[in-house]
């Protein structure tokens, strides 16, 4: 844990209250689901927090010495400042994260929701709840794949009718033109994570990819091969996203030799910077369209 010294009393921490989830109901041929039953408040990211020790000199005619005070500083402070700059231009537009599921994608979604004071949803979790659980999803993949895809579309349709959301969108979101059109209701971000890292998370962390038969008990090479096949099927859909944020490129830009050194905060800053560029371009186009 890093200790930094600064004058006592220099920092006032910002604490945000969690949101209550919006209440909407998803109904389809499989089941019905109230989004209010899903935890949507931004969860606490398990990143280490820095302690800042404040130290200042107390000097006058009679007394000399020092005073030390310790502060716990939110590592997301810079992200929140950037979000405050971006938010007015965003005007509540929702953000959809696409790409193969990974812990980075999940952490990034929660981070952005917290910084922008948005609600966070994982569309795969909502579909799973509507279907009746993971076992029911597996059964539907074998017996009623069409019904499962319709459920995915219904989830996206209802989410797209709302604003101020960060949605971690499952692969079903890029498998049909209807679903891709629903993503156009917001800004889509392709979170491009190296496949080797995804395979590692599946094998070592037991991470499961929704709607796939990839087994975490298989060898790393077998899982990597299966992940590569899935990526090839989805790549065209991912590429339609408004912005691509590559974990590998972010690592290179920051001078990291290891992509696992990239934090969710690093990725979040990159996302907000790219959104800021999109907003700027949109404004320029709107200004250019105005008559003299």
UniProtKB/TrEMBL annotation:
Q: Which family does it belong to?
A: Belongs to the shikimate kinase family.
- Quote the cellular component terms of the Gene Ontology held in the record: chloroplast; cytosol
Q: Which Gene3D superfamilies match?
A: P-loop containing nucleotide triphosphate hydrolases
Q: What is the annotated localization of this protein?
A: Plastid, Chloroplast
PANTHER family reported for this sequence: INACTIVE SHIKIMATE KINASE LIKE 1, CHLOROPLASTIC-RELATED, SHIKIMATE KINASE
Q: What's the protein here called?
A: Shikimate kinase
Which SUPFAM superfamilies has this protein been placed in? P-loop containing nucleoside triphosphate hydrolases
């Amino acid at each position: 844990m890093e200790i930094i010294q600064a004058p006592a009393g220099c920092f006032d921490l910002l604490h945000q209250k969690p949101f209550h989830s919006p209440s909407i109901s998803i109904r389809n041929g499989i089941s019905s689901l109230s989004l209010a039953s899903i935890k949507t408040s931004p969860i606490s990211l398990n990143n280490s927090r820095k302690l800042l020790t404040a130290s200042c000199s107390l000097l006058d005619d009679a007394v000399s010495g020092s005073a030390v005070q310790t502060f716990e500083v939110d590592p997301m402070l810079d992200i929140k400042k950037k979000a405050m700059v971006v938010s007015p231009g965003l005007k509540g537009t929702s953000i959809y994260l696409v790409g193969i599921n990974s812990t980075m994608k999940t952490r990034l979604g929660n981070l952005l929701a917290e910084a922008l004071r948005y609600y966070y949803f994982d569309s795969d979790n909502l579909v799973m709840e509507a279907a009746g659980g993971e076992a029911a999803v597996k059964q539907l993949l074998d017996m009623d794949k069409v019904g499962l895809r319709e459920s995915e579309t219904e989830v996206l349709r209802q989410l797209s009718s709302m604003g101020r959301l960060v949605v971690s969108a499952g692969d079903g979101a890029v498998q049909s033109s209807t679903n891709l059109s629903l993503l156009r209701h917001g800004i889509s971000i392709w979170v491009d994570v190296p496949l080797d890292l995804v395979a590692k998370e599946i094998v070592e962390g037991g991470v499961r990819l929704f709607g796939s038969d990839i087994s975490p008990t298989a060898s790393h090479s077998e899982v990597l091969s299966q992940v590569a096949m899935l990526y090839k099927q989805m790549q065209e859909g991912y590429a339609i996203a408004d912005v691509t944020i590559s974990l590998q490129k972010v690592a290179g830009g920051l001078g990291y030799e290891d992509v696992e050194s990239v934090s969710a905060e690093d990725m979040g800053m990159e996302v907000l910077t790219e959104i800021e560029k999109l907003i700027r371009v949109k404004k320029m186009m709107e200004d250019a369209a105005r008559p003299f």
